[in-house]
Design a protein that fits this description.
heterodimer, A: 117 residues, mainly beta, seven-stranded mixed β-sheet, four-stranded antiparallel β-sheet, 11 strands, globular, B: mainly beta, five-stranded mixed β-sheet, 46% strand
């Protein structure tokens, strides 16, 4: 079975450029999460969707960041304009949420390593 | 979600049991304890979760204290491939997982 797919795996861009990260969740999963990981701040939840609807975006650092989920099989995280401090590994994860916390394993993608020069 | 605290790092000899503690003293009644691990730069991987009873699966065992304020993840026979950062988290009422700094476990030959 295909896991969570992220693209690109590596992205190097210059300050001020627009960056778009992509994620394809596991088929049948109804929740999708975007995380950012840096040495300084660790693994931070940026935003998550349930049934394509954004539920909690309190972790989105500022207006330069936006995320969309137009359908159940695709999500994007966009940074515009990008800054050097956005350099990090961005992970996408998906899960099948049944409405309780009994079992809610999140499956993570391989991540996108973003470098903003 | 309750805040968790874990030791920054631990060492374990190959073949021995690795016991990783986690403190979650502010956990509420409906919150579960989840453990994930991250090997090198890969995405985190689910290990185990529990509410108040001890749990065991093919990867590990989870021991939760009776007051639920702390828990211990046990890898019964650690191998070199278990070297990773282990994260303890609580989750209840929503799908949100809040990851702390985790414990870097190094399994030595």
């Amino acid at each position: 079975d295909a896991g969570v797919i992220q693209s690109p795996r590596h992205e190097v861009t210059e300050m001020g450029q627009e960056v778009t990260l992509r994620c394809k969740p596991i088929s049948g999963h109804n929740s999708l999460f975007w995380y950012r990981q840096t040495m300084m701040r660790g693994l931070e939840l940026l935003i998550y969707f349930n049934n394509n609807v954004p539920i909690d975006d309190s972790g989105m650092p500022e207006d330069r960041f936006s995320a969309k989920m137009p359908n159940a099989s695709f999500s994007t995280l966009k940074i515009q304009p990008s800054e050097p401090r956005d350099s990090a590994v961005y992970f996408c994860a998906s899960s099948l949420f049944a409405g309780t916390s009994d079992y809610n394993e999140q499956f993570f993608g391989p991540g996108t390593r973003l470098t903003v020069l | 979600d309750a805040k968790t605290t874990q030791p920054t790092s631990m060492d374990c000899a190959e073949g021995r049991a690795a016991n990783l503690p986690c403190n979650h003293s502010t956990i509420s009644g409906n919150e579960y304890v989840y453990w994930y691990r991250q090997i090198h730069s890969q995405g985190p991987q689910y290990i185990i979760h529990g509410l108040k009873n001890n749990e065991t699966n093919e990867m590990a065992s989870l021991i939760i204290t009776e007051d639920r304020k702390s828990s211990t993840l046990i890898l019964p026979h650690a191998t070199l491939r278990d070297t990773a950062v282990y994260y303890c988290s609580t989750q209840g009422g929503s799908e949100k997982l809040v990851f702390g700094k985790g414990t870097k476990l190094t399994v030595n030959p």
